[in-house]
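Can't attach files on this board, so I'm pasting raw text. These are the components:
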Amino acid sequence: MLRPSRSRKTPIRRASRRKRAVQAARAAAVPASASRKVRSAGRRDAILSAALDEFSTRGFEAARLDDVARRAGVAKGTIYLYFRDKESLFQELIRAMLTPLVGTIEALGEAELPLPVLADRIVELFVREVYETRRKDVIRLMISEGRRFPKLAEFYYREVLARIISAVRSLLRRAAARGEVPEGLAEFPQIIAAPGLVAIIWSGLFERFEPLDVRKMMKTHVELLFAPRRAT
Amino acid sequence: MLRPSRSRKTPIRRASRRKRAVQAARAAAVPASASRKVRSAGRRDAILSAALDEFSTRGFEAARLDDVARRAGVAKGTIYLYFRDKESLFQELIRAMLTPLVGTIEALGEAELPLPVLADRIVELFVREVYETRRKDVIRLMISEGRRFPKLAEFYYREVLARIISAVRSLLRRAAARGEVPEGLAEFPQIIAAPGLVAIIWSGLFERFEPLDVRKMMKTHVELLFAPRRAT
DNA sequence: AAATAATGACTGACTGGTCAGTCATAGTGG
DNA sequence: CCACTATGACTGACCAGTCAGTCATTATTT
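---
Top answer:
Structure tokens for the assembled complex are below.
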């Protein structure tokens, strides 16, 4: 916690043993007619969605839970029925949005695709599944605020990043063995992702001064990396 | 405005009895012997340096000016003699640290260096002038907090980024004209910087799980980009 | 050169406003 | 009918920014 003194006072008397319904229900408006379970899941999603909006525009510290509640169409106290505290809400948000990426990327790594097709897939995956979705904002949040949440960074590294890196690395090794990409690349999968991250940062800070064609930049980069070379 | 009943303009005598003790305990960053002008400059620098530390570790919002003051060996009020407010302190910090980079990079762009030497210089410049200095922290701050300071982002874009990009771009164009680098690269100078930025982010979030050899990654990347290719 | 006055840099207790988290009370689905 | 869900006014911590007061340094007078 950022200010440990604040919440230490009251002992936590959380009795709920209920398993969290982590199923990805659609974040539609919550019809009054729906069953409790459905409404509950809807509420949770609405809160997460509202939190993403507020955290994205104001930053974690400056975001007000009152605003999150209003945006979610819920009272502030309700948030505390679904999340232990603000920090926990933040962590759940990141967790819920980024975990699903892993499977997609691992699948991409396992398919044995010809190099040009692969390059294309990587670019498209990034643009369509990240850059053009709210995942872009979540990753921006992770970049901006992650440093102050070491537990979250650790979770993210173990559950998401390490697995993605490992998948990309083995893919690069196989390609390198066939002589399709240079050896050195497999050691630094970060290099492949780098322009994507830069694009995310750029879009938040400088887009209005100098727009950036993300797809084209990614394509240029990947093609440069994967281009056939003269023998050394 | 409602005033507390006894409040007049009555000056209330409350000179601190602990004053002498406090002054004795204060770590004197600036020797009391120095002239006013010297001490003043020293104070400003001490405040900026302390602010960088506090902003870096807690983030802009969470950083307390009380802590900045303590770290600088100064009273809180003193900060307001040198900076209008917290935001202005932040802006001055970024401005003071990053503006000097421009000249260095423009000089690099103007020297007509052989490609392998140039690659080396770029990597070394980044590692020595940014990554191994506190500029790394300032850039991390810019990335993390810049979005909430549009004015600052604009200043930074105009005064720093645009000029760097322009220098790098013209350098790349000349190299492309000689056939030394691929044409596409000049359109996206961001690609060259990307791994450097990723390294800065990585070092803040994941270094403790998986250390990253920045120099080697940068070198790998630049060499891949600049490598001789088969004719297309 | 010493005494005295003027200056303005510096201090830190205090204020006003903010907001995370609580809990007494009010619904409502099963 | 009551356990579960939801509410929102409230509280206590917290902190940026203020300003009346202090005192070291510099300027002026004797």
